[in-house]
Design goal:
With 371 residues, the chain is α/β, with parallel strands linked by helices. It has eleven helices and ten strands. The strands form two sheets. It has an eight-stranded mixed β-sheet with strand order 2-5-6-1-7-10-8-9, with helices on both faces. The longest helix is centred in the last third of the chain and has 18 residues.
Length: 371
């Protein structure tokens, strides 16, 4: 039994979780939860014992100085709670339990049971797990975000996809299934990150995840500098990609495939979602306009593409330009069995949208995955 002291009774609590590592291409998901914690001034009330779940040769502790004393920060998973006083613009309060950590190295079943123990004690009504995967998606278009659930009723009532994935998975998939077996409604949100610009951060993917979370929970999330960061990120990638004709041609091919596949769907529902988000934010005071960032933004060098060693930074030549599939870059190999298999329903011929969680192929070992 988990006993929580100092945590008040929560109002309609929803748990929102993200984990660094395999499930977090471009650090998009963990950054999204970190943004919620900062904007709503979350207070950490619990941390899982690092000794139980982490291999410190894989996720090493960090040394730092606090004045004149040395301290150690251990890799772990922390839980915080935030109160959203006016969640819908009509004065309704709601609490979020934020779970942010690193994918555990061991004892995943115990890890999930401990997280679910907190959810039970806090009266959590639903668990939302965010992740990000590498895919054949152009950086110039809105970031695809897929919503997955293992519950057929939730899929029908909340306009989600029912997960039917079979294959290797990560902690996002395991936690979602653990929730389902425990009778806790669970949803996973997956953002597709361009494989040819996979290095973190990716503010555009983070923004897309937060937009989808807004729609799912009917919240008003303060976005701060994220929209401007997303525009600046895209402009920087535009400029650097334009320096390499081969990469520019490859991006254009992804754009054409995406636009052709999505043309019949670029109406009704998408426009309605943007308008609903605008209405939620309209009375929230100064803020940013709704929607996804596009091509405008600040100019200047971008830290997001890897250094080729040629004296300038530009996008690496994507293997997909020759093979038609996502390649490997920046230590994150492409999504294979999971991102590849599950993205078959995406509205683009070369950009795949997962039917369930993205999982790695045999040739990948540390890219994002979804369930």
């Amino acid at each position: 039994m988990i006993e929580l002291e100092g945590v008040p009774e929560l109002v309609d609590p929803v748990m929102v979780a993200a984990f660094e590592g395999w499930n977090d291409a471009g650090d998009a998901a963990s950054t999204a939860v970190g943004h919620l914690e900062r904007e709503w001034k979350g207070e950490v009330f619990a941390a899982l014992d690092a000794e139980d779940y982490y291999d410190f040769q894989v996720n090493r502790p960090q040394m730092w100085l606090d004045g004149g004393s040395r301290k150690v920060t251990w890799p772990t998973t922390r839980l915080s709670v935030v109160r959203v006083e006016d969640s819908d613009g009509k004065g309704r309060a709601r609490d979020l339990v934020l779970v942010r950590g690193i994918e555990p190295s061991m004892r995943w079943r115990s890890f999930c049971n401990e997280v679910l123990g907190f959810a039970h004690e806090l009266g959590v009504e639903m668990v939302v797990i965010m992740g990000a995967l590498l895919g054949d998606t152009p950086h110039t278009r809105p970031v695809p975000v897929s919503g997955m659930t293992s519950d057929s009723d939730m899929a029908r009532t909340m306009n989600l996809e029912e997960s039917r994935y079979e294959g290797p998975t990560g902690i996002v998939g395991i936690l979602q299934e653990a929730c389902t077996h425990a009778g806790v409604p669970a949803v996973s949100l997956w953002a597709s990150v361009p494989h040819y610009v996979s290095q973190p951060p990716n503010p555009k993917a983070t923004l897309a995840l937060l937009n989808r979370l807004e729609d799912l929970l009917e919240l008003r999330i303060p976005l701060g500098e994220l929209p401007e960061d997303a525009r600046a990120w895209q402009l920087g990638v535009d400029q650097l990609a334009a320096e390499d004709s081969e990469v520019a041609e490859y991006v254009q091919s992804l754009e054409e495939a995406r636009d052709t596949a999505e043309l019949p769907e670029a109406s009704g529902e998408a426009i309605a979602k943007e308008f609903e988000r605008y209405l939620r934010r309209r009375d929230g005071g100064p803020g940013t306009p709704p929607g996804h960032a596009t091509g405008s933004g600040e100019s200047g060098p971008s830290p997001y593409l890897r250094d080729t060693g040629s004296g300038r930074t530009r996008p690496a030549r994507p293997a997909a330009a020759e093979s038609g599939t996502a390649g490997t870059e920046g230590g994150q190999s492409r999504e294979g069995a999971e991102s590849g298999t599950e993205e078959a329903d995406t509205a683009e011929s070369s950009s795949r949208k997962p039917e369930s969680s993205p999982e790695p192929s045999e040739e990948q070992d540390d890219s994002g995955e979804k369930d």
